[in-house]
Structures are given as C-alpha cells and as structure tokens.
Amino acid sequence: MSKADEAVARGIVKVSDRALGPYQSAVVRIGFSFTWLVFLLFEWPHRRELYGPDGPWSWELGERLVAGNHAFTVLLWSDSAVWFEAVYALAVLSSAALLAGWRTRTMSVLFMVGVLSLQNRSVFMGDGGDNVIHLMAMYLVLTRCGRVWSLDARRARRSRAGGGAGAGGNDLVGIALWSLLGAVLLVATAGGRLSWFGDDGPVLYVGWATFLWGLWLVYGLWWYVTRPADGRENVRRLMDVLGNIVHNAVLLIIMAEVCLIYATAGWYKIQGSRWQDGTAVYYPLHLDYFSPWPALAEVLGSSGLMVMLLTYGTVIVQVAFPFTLFNRRVKNVLLAVMMLEHASIAVILGLPFFSLAMIAADAVFLPTVFLVWIGAGASRAAGRLRRGRPREPEEEAETSEGSGADGPARTLVG
C-alpha cells in the first residue's frame, strides 16, 4: 500500500506540477492552424460559393439545419454579405495569429469560432480532414499550446530577462483585446444569439454563453493574479496547477482521439471484402476525381503486388498503432509510416488538406527529443539568415523550456 500511495502521489504531482508535452502541443497548434489557414487562402476565390451567400446551400437551408442539430455558427446571425466577409477574414487572421503564437489563449478561442462557424454553415464542404480540425479546434482552447515556439513564449522570456513578472499591468494590447471581446460577447448575449444552458453548447447542458463568458472571466482573473503584487502567490499557484491539470487531461483526450480514429478506421476496413482480398487500394487509384497524377496512379495500380502490400499494410498499421504506444521504438516506426502514408495520399489522391490535418494530429506522438532537435535546427537556420547573429539567451532557453530535473518533458506515452 505504501508503494501504491507513493505512485499515486508521484502521478498527481506529475500531472499538476507542469504542462506535459509542451513541444507536442505546440506542433499540434502550428499544424492545425497552418492547415486551416492554407485551406482558407486556397479557397479565397471560391469562399462565397463554399460558405457564403452564393453557395448552393442557402442561408435559409443552413438556418433550418442548425435549428435541428443545434450547431454553433456565427455566420447565421446575419445574411449580410458584409457579415460573411468579416467572419471569413476573422477566421484567416485568427489562424495566422495562432500559427505565430500571438495571444495564444485568445486566438485559440477565435480560431475555434472561425472553424465552427464556417464548417457548420455548410456541412457538406469537406473531405474528412475537416472533422479532425473541427474537434482539435475545440481541444486547443483548453491546452497551454503556446509555451514554446510562439511569440507569447518569446515575450515571456524577454519579460523575465528584464525583471518583469509576465503578463503585467502594462499589457495594454491584452487589456484592449480582452475588453473588446467582452463587449462583443455582451452584445451577442443581449441579442439572444448565445444561450446559457441547453443542448446547443460545447458540453451537455452548458450553453455557449456560459462557456465563452467563463473563458473570458478566467482570462481576466489570470491577468489579475499574474500582475506583480504581494498576496497573490497562492492564487497564482492554484490557477497554474488547475491549468496544468486541464492541459494534461485534454492532451490525453487528443491522443485518445487519434487512437480512436485509427482503430475504428482499421477495424471497419477489416470487415470489407476488398480489404480482405487485398485489392481495396486499386479502386481509388483509378478514379478520375482522385487522380491529379494519372501516370503515377497507373504505375502503382498496375502492380498487383504493390496494391496488395499497400492494402494490407494500411490495415495493419492502423489496427496496430494504438497497441504500440507504450513501446516508443515501435510507436515511432509506425508513426513515421503513417505520416508517410498521409503524405502519399496528399500527392497521389490529391487530398492535401486531409493529409495535413492527419499529420498534425499524429504529431502529438512525436518524440520530444526529435522536436527539440528540429527546433534547434530551425533556430540555427534563422540565425544564419540573420547574418550570423549569435543566439540570444532567451533563444537558447527555448530549447530547454519544459525540461526538468529528469530531462525534457514527454507526452504521457513517451
């Protein structure tokens, strides 16, 4: 019992003392914001047909659908073309800001609003990757995904180097942004656009007004307790512990979500006769709609051995991956294979955004050592681009942030 108690105590300390996987959560943030940003910019000429007033899925049809499924979208607050352009522009800007890690907490909320608003407005626009982005946009709100590789992290390092206390009272940009969003929330709530309770919120019986106002108040409280003043240390530590627990729990949910995606995909494939006889991959290779490079698809599809290997290999990797998570070496091999598979799907079948979304989701399992090595290489390359300027102390600190006495912080599976 003593050993069990010690193990439980160590587990509690581990999940509450720090935010695990800072590099993994950062690369997930970068991956999904990049994927959504590139998609929005790529479809910019067609935005009005996809999600706007010129689309086949009219505003009236969208309103009727949302009335039935209680999905969240601010695009249906008005049928004005100006309102649509403003929401689309907000989605683009928030994606770019989240990618750079500028005001990560706030931008993650705006990123979620943009994703849900556009996708729920026209539910038939997507290729499967949109479902993953939909889920991850909501999860990222509850993670501390800006601890490394972000403008927020750089600002925090410079503040510490200058003797500051982080988000202090001189953060005029943060105060103005918080006040502006509070005013927008007030107008939307007073206008009946957001409900406090019911089945139309992110959680059962919790409306969007309750959720968004709760985030707004928590962000304001966090700013208040992190200001340099005496008597707030205990509250600051409590909020930091709660933030770590929520972050680690959501990170575990993200990993479980990825495992669930692959497990269900693999087990459903096993039940298909074409996957059982090893010919399933042959058919999408010969669909004109999924053949941006017909010659390449023909080369792969003309080899019966290659088709069989790809078919069986896909099923084996997807079914086996969740069972390899506690063996880092095997997990890393299968992870590399899956990422290579998605990259191949992007090129051969012409599904780049689906592949980018899945690669971004897979990145939550990347080894910390590998990500630190990538970050160090990127920093060296950036230094050479700046004419050989030596790295500043805060830049050196980024490669070691999230490390403790036991080495770099890892995900819950290594």
How do you describe this structure in short?
The protein has 19 helices and two strands. The chain has 414 residues and is mainly alpha-helical.
Verbal overview:
- The chain has 414 residues and is mostly helical.
- The chain has helices at 2-17, 22-42, 47-50, 59-69, 81-100, 104-121, 129-140, 151-161, 172-190, 208-225, 233-270, 273-276, 282-285, 294-301, 304-320, 328-348, 352-362, 368-385, 393-400; strands at 403-404, 407-408.
- 67% of the residues lie in helices and 1% in strands.
- The protein is built from 19 helices and 2 strands.
- Strand 1 and strand 2 form a beta hairpin.
- Strands 1-2 form a two-stranded antiparallel sheet.
How is the topology of this model organized?
Elements: H1 2-17, H2 22-42, H3 47-50, H4 59-69, H5 81-100, H6 104-121, H7 129-140, H8 151-161, H9 172-190, H10 208-225, H11 233-270, H12 273-276, H13 282-285, H14 294-301, H15 304-320, H16 328-348, H17 352-362, H18 368-385, H19 393-400, E1 403-404, E2 407-408
Antiparallel strand pairs: 1-2
Helix pairs in contact: 2-5, 2-7, 2-17, 5-6, 6-7, 7-17, 8-19, 9-10, 11-15, 16-17
Instruction: Please work out how many helical segments DSSP would assign.
Output: 19
Low-confidence stretches: 393-414
What does the radius of gyration come to?
23 Å
| Helix share bin | 55-70%
The whole-number mean of residue pLDDT values reads 87
Shape: globular
What strand line-up does the widest sheet have?
Answer: 1-2
Main beta sheet: strand number and arrangement?
2 strands, antiparallel
Tell me how many strands there are: 2
User: What structural class results from the helix and strand content?
Assistant: mainly alpha
Give the topology string: H per helix, E per strand: HHHHHHHHHHHHHHHHHHHEE
Strand content: under 5%
Intertermini distance:
27 Å
